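Anyone else keep sequences and structure tokens together like this?

Example one:
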Amino acid sequence: MTRKIRMGMVGGGHGAFIGNVHRMAARIDGAIELVCGAFSSDPERSLSSGLALGLSESRCYADFNQMLTAESRLPAGERMDFVSIVTPNHLHFDVAKAALESGFHVLSDKPATFSLNEALALAPVIAESGKLYGLTHTYTGYPMIKQAQALVASGELGKVVKVIAEYHQGWLASSEDDSGKQASWRVDPNQAGISCCMGDIGVHAANLMEYVTGLQITELCSDLAAVVSGRRLDDDGTVLTKFNNGARGTLMASQVAVGEENNLTLRVYGEDASLSWQQQEPNSLWLKRNNQPSQLYRTGVGPMADTTLAATRTPAGHPEGYLEAFANIYSDFAGQIIAHENNQESTRNVPGIDDAIRGMAFIENAVAASHSSIKWHPFVVDRSPFDN
């Protein structure tokens, strides 16, 4: 890096869990500094949040439009380089569109937008702006997920025939949980969109299935439910999938699995070998074959793929986890910005608008299939209204 990349944030004020996670991740490698923000829809709360983060009053804005206008007027060496969006889902599109049109790069929390149509509408805005857009599919930042991707791509597993992803949490197991700050907007269709569980965590599992295997979901069969009485959005679900190479998959996600913390697992079965990874034991990746000893890959031990090495910070035996994986997304995005400024191609890989569109398509297809009595449904991504 030749300089620090300057970040502005929308959302993430007092009491917002994910905003603080984004800020910690951005700081880890020392490549990014927070210089401004519109941290809340309440101007006073936004100001107090910014001051508590050590920002000057002049860089704590009442809303994102004020922030974009004011930052645009600052000298190039002072204004923010990109906007980090950490608001509830219903605000993502408006903030991203305005930021891009104002000349700023965008890194957004997932899901990308409130609806698939918004994600599709955002694609031409990104193209016309000439700016970068990234999506924080955090789990793609883990070194062993990158190693899994490399092993599949190398042919080590042979043809992939089955993929199983599970993401189980228990924090929404009771209706009493709905009143909390982190839960209240996620169970509200006016803020979260058409799905709670699949939109919040199922989309991560679907993203990992495609990211690691290099395959795409082409059909699905879905069963979503609101287990807790009175909820308007799903809190549990199972999605069966078919992939473009003929492989089958199973995706299970739940936020009412009592006792579960953040239990994300991925298993990929090929004709020759299989892989298994657990987010709660992220430094380990198992490679298994029939009638042979299993092989354990450990972060920082032995030869690894270049992408794995680039995502590894500490020597073996020093656990790396969620924040470091998150930080890899931020570090790679900062690298993309530097390359963009120098008119260079970047080797850094950050989930982008194509991942955003497929994520929103997964959510909407899963919800639609669950409401239908038909078993299998094509995975539809309708770009036609936005194609030239």
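And example two:
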Amino acid sequence: MSAMVIGVDAGATTTRCVVATLDGVVAGRGRAGGANANSSGGEISATLGMALAAALDTVDRTAVRFGVLGAAGSAGAGRERFRAAARQAWREAGLGGEMATVTDLEVAFAAGTAQPDGVLLLAGTGALAARFRDGVLERRCDGYGWLLGDEGSAVWIGVRALRAALAALDGRGEPTTLVTTMRAYFNIEAATGEEVAQALLHQAFAVPPAELGRLAPLVSEAAHDPVAARICARAAGKLLHTYDSVGPGEGVTVIAGSVLLNPGPVSRAVRAGLLARTATPPRPALDGAAGAAALAVGRLTGTPVPPVVHARLTGSTHDPSRE
């Protein structure tokens, strides 16, 4: 029986799980809702359990030897809360192998490269930059959550679009097509500007903060509008400033998160800025759960993950051996 590992990437809006062999062949995948203690809402262990159960549906659970579970919001004060939830989910899934918890930074960087040195720039629901040396997180910048930081993130963009729409409705700001965009998204049929503003207010506060990140693609689509264009330009500037705060230094640059991996004005501007700074295109981290699985392979075997195994796990189109 081939030994298996598990990798979990628990984000603010989506939790993904991968079960794979030690040579990088994926045997199962699972998916559930968000599991960020700061912004997702709900019971973390239950969400992790759903993702694990789906991935293990056709897999012999006794073959699992090691698992790495990473999550947004699991650093600092959130570390023990996530670790306890992960242990509970692991146990309730009937798994007997060892388990380790890390932050979403480790799994995102590992998803983009097999190398130990470099910088991760992440902009999805949240946003931050992190420098790694010898596989260890050396320094980070931002990632302080939707209320206090995450500058340039999807939620940051969504909140500013809502602010711009409200300002346009009450006369504090210039007219913008974002009003129409927000009305359509929230299905608001109110007649007067005041009624629309109050309906927007009600709808925005009725969802978990992480859900506001779903507005970011709509802002990108509306970038022909001067107000939306300025929001996108500011987001890109914030992200590049965050990157500069940890410095390019040695190693590769990995980008992660929906804002940077999906096409749009923010992604284009940031990628161009990174290319100008490093003279090398950034590596995309396409599958955080696969990155966590790669970490699990390395921890179980006690050796660096071979580039071919990393590429097989993560679906990389580049050759990691040339990094």
